[in-house]
Amino acid sequence: MNNSELPLIGTERLLLRLPTQEDIPAILDYYTENKAYLTPFCPSWSPDFFTQEYWHLQVENNYLEFMNDLSFKLFIFPKKEPIRIIGVVNFTNFIRRSAQYCNLGYNLAEVEQGKGYMTEALQAAIQYVFQELNMHRIMANYMPHNQRSGNVLKRLGFVVEGYARDYLLINGQWQDHILTSITNRDWKFSQ
């Protein structure tokens, strides 16, 4: 994998990029430090999730999925400390042809909440997905009690489209979700 081929998205305070093998210790630190905070919002952790072996394969898969137009999974780094991970932005389930959409998921370190980092990161990442990957629609869903996430999506221009009962298995429980999306007004038809 040649790191110079990988996209690097910069904002005023942040860098967003696909992970490399060198990032595995920082990935493990991020998830270990935030496990208790993130657990209520995540699917159950795989038994080997917190191992180097798991992330060695995951980093390779993230790269291959990006190169094959299947997903775009980014980690968020502060510009002032570009080896420390403070969050995740994942665009997954790329559907092309007549649909041209994907799903968005994200999380941020507990100690970094309330600083506007996620809004800043998502603005730049969504712009990249719309302009560079030419996606027409991005869908994001959140649990009704996670109003902080709902507020971020609203600030970014996501529109509520519905309510899905027992939508995703989160932390061992089926959870309702509010369904939202944003569309690319500048989408270009390409063959």
Summarize the structure.
This protein is an alpha+beta fold. The chain is 29% helix and 31% strand.
Description:
- This protein has 191 residues and is of the alpha+beta class.
- It has a single domain, classed as 3-Layer(aba) Sandwich (Aminopeptidase), CATH 3.40.630.30.
- The chain has helices at 24-38, 52-67, 117-131, 147-155; strands at 8-10, 14-17, 72-78, 87-95, 101-108, 137-142, 159-170, 173-183.
- An eight-stranded mixed beta sheet has the order 1-2-3-4-5-6-8-7, sandwiched between helices.
- It is globular and about 40 Å long.
- The protein starts with 7 loop residues before the first strand and ends in an 8-residue tail after the last strand.
- The model has no long low-confidence stretch (mean pLDDT 92).
Strand order of the largest sheet: 1-2-3-4-5-6-8-7
N-to-C SSE series?
EEHHEEEHEHEE
- Regions with pLDDT < 50 over 5+ consecutive residues? none
CATH superfamily: Gcn5-related N-acetyltransferase (GNAT)
What structural category do the secondary elements indicate? alpha+beta
Q: Please, how many helices? A: 4
| Proportion of helical residues | 25-40%
How big is the Rg?
A: 16 Å
According to DSSP, the number of beta strands is 8
- Gap from first CA to last CA: 28 Å
Mean pLDDT: 92
